[in-house]
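Changelog note: in this version the structure field was regenerated for every chain. One regenerated record is shown below for reference.
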Amino acid sequence: MTEILSRRIGKTHSELVSPISAQSLCFVAVRVLLLPLAVFPLFAQLQNNRPTLRSVREIWGLNSAEAKNAYAVHLEGVVTYSDAEWGLLFIADETGAIYINTHGMGFSTPAGSRIHVDAVTGPGDIGTVIVRPNIHVLGQGSLPPPERRSLTEINTLTFDSHFVETHGVLAACDQPWARICFRIVDGKVSALVVIPIPNNASAQRLVGASVQIRGVSGVHLDPDGKPLSAMIFVSRLEDIKVEGGATQALNAVAVIVNKTNPVNNLSMAELKEILLGERLYWRGTQEISLLLPSPGSPDREIALSVLHMDDSSYERYWSERMRSGKAGHAPAAVSSTGVAAKSGLRHTRGNRNCPRGRR
């Protein structure tokens, strides 16, 4: 019995310490190499198990952590706003609206175009967005009916990316952008309004008008990505309608005053007196310091239209006034109304047709 056991142990020991044959080494190596190779089909299977998102509702259903997983998106919808310079594209389908990041692509197509987008999801400043898009224009579609929203609702950012309609009074823009820009105001709330075309005098004549606008609700962010205010992206100047008739826009101008100034509105006669240096004080001994936009700017053209003057005739007027020793100081020029706005000033208005002004 001992001998049999000894043989078995010896045989087992011999098998364990004996050299491994080349054939066995090859077999072991193949098994080791096959293990990582088996992971790739498994990874592909996991990828294939991820759902492909085919509606805006499905995309907005992702939380920020899920959005980072770059879920595949196959989406068809109607463009509500397109901006090649700023890399903005907004589309809507039957289930909702969403932003597509097109920075660096130079892509632009008219609002109302129907497109197909192959892309992936990504986290955005406000909810999930679509990134790395491959866009195919299918043809012309129809814009969805705009949602009627107040500026207060729009400023909650709840309706980000939605095609909306709102109303308010247009004030001069306080940003340095080389495009049409306004600030629309309703009571104590406001939002920026931008149109992706160069600024011009026709657009600036709308300053001071009570308007209804259609555009896409967005957000104005600071350099750190913190929301500053709502922003409305408007495709065309024609999407801004003056309430009460088209002539109203030509009968109103915006005036900027110091935020501590109690003046809320001016009659056109009062505004003319200030521009001509005939009125020197607000109330009591509070002296008026007059600032005007730089010569040649659309804003200055609008301001001087109140006097039916241009730059040259206005300069001649002030030269003669100063030579004659009359009281008052010639207005200083600023680069834009934005410079004045950043100096702690606020907007008020004057109206040609209403001597007492209007709120």
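Spot check on this record: The chain has eleven helices and 17 strands. The radius of gyration is 33 Å.
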